[in-house]
Design a protein that fits this description.
single chain, alpha/beta, 4 strands, globular
Length: 78
């Protein structure tokens, strides 16, 4: 069996998404995408174990940067 954590991809880093990030981060590999670099910087200080990507959810460039192996859920909180 594959021992890698399953992934959850969260678009946005507002209040709702940060709550999700806190809940998921202990058991999941969380990837967060947000257009606001300042939100990413603040969140990295609080929850450093997540993977953060600065980009737009609708951008093909952002999607090409994502490793979707073992991805279980995509949550849009934008």
């Amino acid at each position: 069996m594959n021992n890698e954590k399953q992934k959850v991809l969260i678009f946005g880093l507002g209040q709702f998404a940060k709550g999700l990030l806190k809940e998921f981060s202990s058991d999941w590999h969380v990837i967060v995408v947000d257009i606001h670099e300042s939100r990413i910087t603040l969140s990295k200080e609080e929850i450093p174990d997540a993977e953060y990507i600065h980009g737009a959810a609708e951008s093909p460039v952002t999607w090409k940067r994502l490793d979707l192996t073992n991805l279980k859920y995509i949550i849009s909180a934008v």
